[in-house]
Design a protein that fits this description.
The complex is a heterodimer of chains A (484) and B (95). Chain A has 484 residues and is of the alpha/beta class. Helix content of chain A is 38%, strand content 13%. Chain B has a two-stranded antiparallel sheet with strand order 1-2. In chain B, a hairpin with a 2-residue loop joins strand 1 and strand 2. Classes of the chains: A alpha/beta (484), B mainly alpha (95).
């Protein structure tokens, strides 16, 4: 008897191809588990009826030896990806009734490969948050919560992280603007990969900050992340920033043992870092050395300016992207006799506090008289941050850092202090500004018995090296995946 | 930069967001804190540095302006809060 709870994506693909399990069994198992673990609040929508029907179709293809790469595999999708005729909310009241007339490119790529939509996962409203607490549907719960303490799953892709870590999804998609895949992966003890900007099409993903947004996989293992990204990635004419490159083969390339030069940025070692994080950092370095990798200290001098740069640029882009929500063509409307009042009422009631705050910050830094001082300044500092990475990557293949400055925190402890919340992203934001690929891999448990992840950053479009390095950490850390 | 109540109201108006009078103070304080925090960037010398608008070095491609999908008017209107005869309904705009 195969214990479906224990198998990862790679194994499930193998078992389905060998006809040892059926797609219907796998899909039914996850639907049942998801229903049983409602307290995680990981899903905004479960595709219960349709998923079974699609699984039956997949089983027919498998019987006819006509299976595609992800045939019959149920996948959880962050509710920021538009799914045709299926509720797509961005965890906002303003989109709480929105059923898109089209499918996002990344999800279409998954369905074309035979995958099945299991459900849409919870997130911070419009992906703006680091704890999932800004969701209109309430925060998802970190499955590692215990002793009556409720820990956040991280954010914004907190529902996807909670679902994979909690055993109610075999793999999920996330999106990452400033750390939204990597930080929740770290908090929940799973793998989260943010690919290079341009690797996956952004078409059909509800926009937050267009020069930063990127889709990626959230999985149980590094191999699973490679399998997912091979399907998700690819050029798309509908996204003018999507890269036109050869078909990727991350999964097969993972078999090659790479001798890598690993960079350690001295600016990431700040005084506030907990001793246990520093210890895990040393442990990770030992893992690399054991695998014939060389450790090199590097300089990223503008690291301390990354967060401020990020909040100016991402809020500016958000204020512009979110101008479209006006209650006219789709979404929630708060009626009024007068058109301007209708816009204002709709947006005031439809958006949550954090989204309003960011729209206002963005509007301010773009407004006449302040544009040069804030927005243009931030874009110039962004160039300096990118240049830091360019220089570092002349010396090393990948960079190794903690993913977040702490383990998961308790619900309600940071939500009233925006800046305190923003500081969670201190190690992930610089990478987003530079558009680089990065992965979070669990390395061990903190003194609170919560997962801690470490981040591996690569050169543009060198996800191969990122995945190879991640595999070294994964193999040596031998992280215990079960939260219970 | 201190953001006072008057400026909060101006930004709110530009953002098309209503802020209740009793919350204006709170927003003024929060926005001032965030703006003071990001002013840290003034420490960085950015003379002769060009701004980055996009981290990708891909040249924006040109394509023909042609309809590839379409004919989904009814599906699009289905998402509208109010529509009639193929049009979105809004309150009277012209006096």
């Amino acid at each position: 008897m195969i214990d479906l709870k224990k198998i990862n994506l790679e194994k499930a693909i193998e078992l389905i191809k060998q006809k040892k399990i059926s797609s219907k069994e796998l899909v039914s198992f996850y639907l049942k588990e998801a229903e049983a673990k409602k307290e995680l609040n990981a899903y905004i929508y479960l595709n219960s009826d349709n998923a079974i029907k699609l699984a039956e179709e997949s089983d027919k293809r498998i019987a006819n030896n006509n299976a595609r790469p992800l045939e019959g595999i149920p996948i959880a999708i962050k509710d920021l990806f538009c799914t045709k005729d299926v509720l797509t909310t961005a965890a906002s009241k303003i989109l709480s009734n929105f059923k898109p007339a089209y499918e996002s490119t990344v999800t279409q790529n998954l369905w074309d490969a035979g995958a099945i939509l299991l459900g849409k996962t919870n997130l911070d409203e419009f992906a703006m948050g680091s704890s999932n607490e800004t969701s209109f549907y309430g925060a998802a719960l970190n499955p590692w919560s215990k002793n009556k303490k409720e820990y956040v799953p991280g954010g914004s892709s907190g529902g996807s992280a909670s679902a994979v870590a909690g055993g109610i999804a075999i793999a999920a998609t996330g999106t990452d603007t400033g750390g939204s895949i990597r930080q929740p992966a770290s908090y929940c003890g799973i793998i989260g990969l943010k690919p290079t900007y341009g690797r996956c099409s952004r078409w059909g993903i509800v926009s937050f900050a267009s020069s930063l947004d990127q889709a990626g996989p959230m999985t149980k293992t590094v191999n699973d992340a490679a399998i997912m990204l091979d399907v998700m990635a690819g050029h798309d004419k509908k996204d003018s920033t999507s890269a036109n490159l050869e078909k990727t083969n991350f999964y097969n390339n993972l078999k090659i043992n790479k001798k890598l030069k690993i960079g350690i940025p001295k600016q990431y070692k700040n005084d506030q870092l907990d001793k246990e994080i520093l210890n895990f950092w040393e442990l990770g370095k030992e893992f690399f050395k054991k695998n014939n990798c060389e450790i090199v200290e590097i300089d990223l001098p503008h690291t301390e300016y990354a967060l401020a740069t990020y909040y100016i640029i991402s809020s500016a882009e958000a204020s512009s992207n979110l101008a479209r929500y006006d209650g006219i063509r789709y979404g929630f409307r708060k009626d009024s006799e007068e058109i301007i009042n209708l816009y204002e009422n709709t947006r005031s009631v439809g958006f949550g506090e954090e989204v309003k705050r960011r729209i206002m910050i963005g509007t301010y830094v773009l407004s006449a008289g302040y544009y040069d001082a804030y927005y243009l300044k931030a874009q110039k500092v962004r160039s300096k941050i990118i240049n830091d990475f360019n220089q570092a990557f002349e010396k090393v293949d990948v960079i190794f850092t903690p993913t977040a400055p702490t383990d998961a925190f308790e619900k309600g402890t940071k939500i009233d202090d925006p800046i305190k919340m923003y500081l969670n992203d201190v190690f992930t934001v610089p990478i987003s500004l530079a558009g680089l690929p990065a992965i979070s891999v669990p390395i061990g448990l903190s003194k609170n018995d919560l997962p801690l992840g470490f981040q591996i950053i690569g050169k543009r479009f060198d996800e191969d090296s990122v995945l190879s390095a991640a595999k070294i950490i994964e193999t040596n850390a031998n992280f215990k995946k079960e939260s219970d | 930069m201190d953001i006072d109540k008057k400026l909060v109201k101006k930004i709110a108006n530009l953002s098309k967001i209503n802020i209740e009078e009793k919350n204006v103070d709170k927003f003024a304080k929060e926005l001032s804190n965030i703006i003071s925090w990001v002013e840290k960037l003034n420490e960085v010398d950015t003379k002769n540095i060009s701004p980055t608008t996009n981290p990708s070095d891909i040249k924006i491609p040109f394509r023909k302006d042609e309809i590839k999908d379409g004919k989904i008017k009814d599906k699009i209107l289905k998402n509208a809060p109010e529509h009639k005869g193929g049009y979105f309904i809004v309150p009277k705009v012209i006096e």
